[in-house]
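Quick question: what would this complex look like in 3D?
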Amino acid sequence: MQFPSQQREPASTRRLRGAVTFLSATLLLAAVHRELRADPVHNAIETVQQRVVKIYGAGGIANLHAYGTGFLVSSEGHIVTVWSHVLDGDVVTIVLDDGRRYYGKVLGAEPQLDLAVLKIDAENLPHFDLGESTTAGPGARVLGFSNMYEVAVGDEPVSVLRGVVTARTNLTARRGRFEVPYNGPVYIVDAITNNPGAAGGVLTTYDGELLGMIGRELQNTESNTWVNYVMPIQQLADTVEAIISGDFSRTDEPPEENDPRRYRALDFGIILVPDVIYRTPAFIDSVAAGSLAEEVGLRPDDLIVFVNNELVQSIRMLQTQLGRLQAEDDLTLIVRRGNSLVSVTMRVPRKNEE
Amino acid sequence: MRPSTSRTAGRPRYLLLLLLACAALARATPARAQLPALEEQAFQQAAALADPSVVRIETVGGLDVVGNLLTATGPTTGAVVSEDGYIITSSFNFASRPASVIVTLSDDRRFPAEVVATDGSKMLTLLKIDEDGLVPLQAVPKSELRVGQWAIALGRTYDNAFPSVSVGIISALDRIWGRAVQTDAKVSPVNYGGPLVDIEGRAIGVLVPLSPQRQEETAGVEWYDGGIGFAIPMEDIYAILDRLKSGEELKPGKLGISFEQMGPLAGQARIDRVRPTSPADEAGLLVDDVITSADGKPVRRIPDLQHILGPKYAGEEISVTVRRGEEEIEVRLTLAAELKPYESGYLGILPTRLPLDKTPEGVEIREILADSPAASAGLQPRDVVTAIGDAQVASAIELLDQVGRMQPGESEAVTYLRGGEEATVEIEFAAIPDTVPESLPTANIPAPEEADGDALPTGRFTATLPGGTEEYWAYVPQQYNPNYAYAMLVWLHPAGDTMEASMMRLWQTHCDRRGIILVGPKAADINNWTPEEAEFVRGAAEQMIELYSIDPARVVVHGHAAGGQFAWHVGFKYRDLFPGIAASAAPLQQPPPDNDPDFRQQLHLLCRESDPSHPLVTQTAQALREQFKFPVTLSVTPEEDGQYLSEESLERLALWLDAIDRI
């Protein structure tokens, strides 16, 4: 699928083949061309490109690029982008699609949402209206706009990619390796939107309606593949408004309980097989007499496959899941017994504090 | 999100409704681009139609690293192929040999699944769940497929409510030697095993990773999301479904011949080697026969033959016509699943390591190894081997090529010079012994004559690849003399510790004595080697080879624990670069490649007796030696404590490395 953007120039080659062909081809193309001019997709692209800006800031060493993308959300120069190292420097330079240059200042940021709002001193700028955003489902055609790889320079508008929404899902970023604070709902896109410098760009429908902000380069924890994700604008709009109006106070990071290990399988009377390899399946070796596990009917050789609806692929994952439980929680285990799945539920017991 | 009609309505009526709806929509919102909007609707409807046949597959347990890959632990996708619970999926999903498989249907119901059978040629696995009333995929007839038509890749891994969608076109038909359809829709572990459907929601095929060059479960994964994806045609899957349902394991059929040159430009199919006991051997095919037709189709060049054999399974019969001299001979043979592995011959000498400014004329013997054919035949150090049979050998590389192609038990005349006198002796070649020489005098390298002003760094230093940020450290003996070739040990550290200091402490003396350069690439995340980093390891090794005098016959990749696993991967991936792999406390977790006389690789496995991996390491050594006929040495030491190597096993590893150029 191609965007009709330029009129093709067939006349020079076709002239030789005869006046009739030449004439009809020219007429046909003229008609097609008129049609293209009126094409709303074409218009949408032009409109969106005027609202997307190129951002230059800190970086440039190692693999950290010193450029990014942002988009205008007010006529007086409020710009939304991702909270990244590019904004760390003293000076952030903003270049509009027509080449005008401004110095921007960071008005506020919400690391929890991977979000920052910048301000430049300008007026009457084309911009997105955050109140008029939309949503899309899998298969919906979308356009991605960003200054990926710093291709656009000066008065060149940002690059456009096309694709479809692959899925709406919750982000599961690879913990510990490519940590992203944002873990809310996202769009997954089948175009390679998340390139260096693309974070802070926008995803729109073919009509140019705003869907969300392109995220960072990130690997999916579950499949070890690079994932092209976009944060829906609805997730960001309230915070952006609050930052602009000045009544935003950024949330401090919640104290991260790293593997609290409050409970172990043994606390429920479950004795697992020895954890010998990295991914030992969570088979029950035996069940302690008089324990909760015995009460709900767990048996030796049951394979624990889900803990509170989370798939556990190994004893390690099981222990992590159990570790997060609190007293009085419900614990639902689904075990594979022979060729069937059996579900049992227990109440997490109180532990004697040391 | 899911149109409620998709499950109940018949397709013709449904499509009509769809068209009406689109027309209405187009009228209602004239601003919307009509064609793109209609197409968008069609994509979504196609996905909705196939939706009930797309299932999620989750696995429990299994290996963490398969080959190069940290295997996906996330969910993958499958496709329903019969009402009574059969589900086809990509074998990639099972590369880690999971203990248990769970299938989730589109209506969120979960079932345990059994693996019924696999197709090792099309890389498919058939699963069965205990449930009736499923909706199987409808196949598009292959004859209807056209390059350029819409192709929509579906998966069920992100969100169970609706399949994930990626839209592209069919890029080619009959790819991967006639096995697959190619698409530019985004295909990755996220939708491997899911269907590729047409605009009407009928299945074109099932998505699998494939590579024209390689065969294992994870081949082709490196192309994920790159616009090069493959699907096995649905019609072909239904054609073999009954065989798979009966539990038959389907494997690619092999003839047992090889050609001097493969690749896209390879010429006529002149047989270079015939594997002993292979179908080709038993049918009487000979070296230098030229295959002119197979299965009734003409073979003008080697790729023609690959196209004919590609879709064939082991057990199928084909006819092959060859030209032998003036004669045309037709044979019928039954393709085999497995070929008897190739085993390299062995003479039992170590070649003298000449200064690089000397041109060798023949191969001077530095040492005769004990209990070897060379020893029995009375060859002596300083003899110069000049020919094997009729083939002249001017260098150690040429000698290795000749001897490597001999089978153990074969005899050949060996010509050599002793004190200027030419002599010939008939030698019966043996197999490379599974022992490390007891001791080996070091081949001394003299100190360089004069200090060079801008000499290369020696001692311990750190370097990066041009344009890259990945770092490696290296140790080059202080007395480095560029006129002599050094061995190179590429060290792949275990998880969590580069062990730079302790490697230096343990290895420095060996490096100085035996002329070894030590190179230690560092993983970007010290806790984990990622598959992509194989490229970096190769880059580091090649950079050192470019800068320093390094003997290509003595380049070894060595790792401990997780680094050992990675060493297997790197070593088998770049067989031309690493004639040796030394893995410590790391059992092999993937099927090794065939032993190949073109890339002779010697393998050394090390382990402490108390290490939990000890039984598996022993099994690995045995399997590599007996089933795959690799030259394998195993070193188990009894010490209780310590992480890496004991002094004894270190000494043995250094000896193995120093003798790795044995021929």
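Answer marked as accepted. Chain A touches chain B through 50 residues (CB under 8 Å).
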